[in-house]
Amino acid sequence: MLVKPRRVFPETLFVLRGSALYDNWPILIGLTVFAFISTEVLYALGVERFNLSVTPFSLIGLALSIFLGFRNNACYDRWWEARKLWGALINTTRSIARQTLNFVNSDDPAVRSFHQEMVRRTIGFAYGLKYHLRAEVRLDAVTAWLPDEDGAALVEEENVPNALIQRMGERYRMAWKRGWIDTYHMNIFEGSLTRLSDIQGGCERIKNTPVPLSYTVLTHRLVALYCLTLPFGIASTVGHTTPIVVLIVSFAFLGLDSLGTQLEDPFELDPNDLPLAALARTIEINLLQRIGESELPSPTRPMGGILE
Q1: pTM for the whole thing?
Q2: Which residue in 163, 193, 231, 308 has its CB near the most CB atoms, within 10 A?
Q3: CA triple 23-29-30, angle to 5 deg
Q4: What is the rounded radius of gyration, in angstroms, for the C-alpha atoms of the chain?
Q5: What are the C-alpha distances in Å from 228 to residues 42, 61, 272?
Q6: Which pLDDT tens digit goes with each residue over 124-161?
Q7: What is the pLDDT of residues 196-220, one digit of tens each?
Q8: Residue 66 and residue 267: Cα distance in Å, rounded?
Q9: Using the 8-state DSSP alphabet, how is residue 179 labeled?
Q10: Helix, strand, coil share (%) of the chain residues, nearest 5
Q11: Closest among 223, 289, 235 to 60, alpha carbons compared
Q12: What is the pLDDT of residue 13?
């Protein structure tokens, strides 16, 4: 996620990375050169013979802007829902840690170890979900939070976070059988684990159900066709400043199109995607403090203005 610089005018005018200009400058240069060549050819051949009316471009431009705005709203809703799900994940992991420390009680000295085990398993789930959503195979980063005997079992798992939830449920059931957890409190633990499953399912729904390809393809084709034909509609009106006008209009439409593409999958590593690593580190710090760890990792810091 882009966190720098301050989002105030006029500083935002000079932001490059994460902006539409950073992604689209080669295309903008190409469109401007094409507009320049087209304008010169039109005037050499007689602009009156090949001139198109500005009216259809005005109508198409208005419709296209509404179309792009609708797509961007849909993509932003996906981004915002993903952020809410990870906010719910932070809250749910905190609740699980609190419930474990408060509801698992016994004179058995093994209970203290059980507290630490389950809190660390919860941290492992957060990292497992992060790597799962980014399609990264990092079992070592997940198994570091688990007992040795559980790490080997994850190698065969297609869905690591789901397997972690299953194992957490089995461990709470073991504690219930030993009398460490009251039956009433067991239902509370089950509700928290169900909430973790719901959060994971919500994230997977966003990840695995992109905006329909035909919608995206249509948008890209309309933007390209509009920008390429625009010189033929305005050359007789704005003259040799046509390339400048094409540059400005293309920047607007390509920028809107690029913004929707960046927000469509909020779990990737684009500058405007969610900082899953930073969110997982927040969970790690919060939960380790609950079990009395004194050597805590530092919060994730932005690198190059980007928080991953």
Answers
A1: 0.87
A2: 231
A3: 105
A4: 27
A5: 14, 13, 28
A6: 999 999 999 998 878 888 999 998 888 888 888 889 99
A7: 999 999 999 999 998 888 888 888 8
A8: 26
A9: T
A10: 75, 0, 25
A11: 223
A12: 54
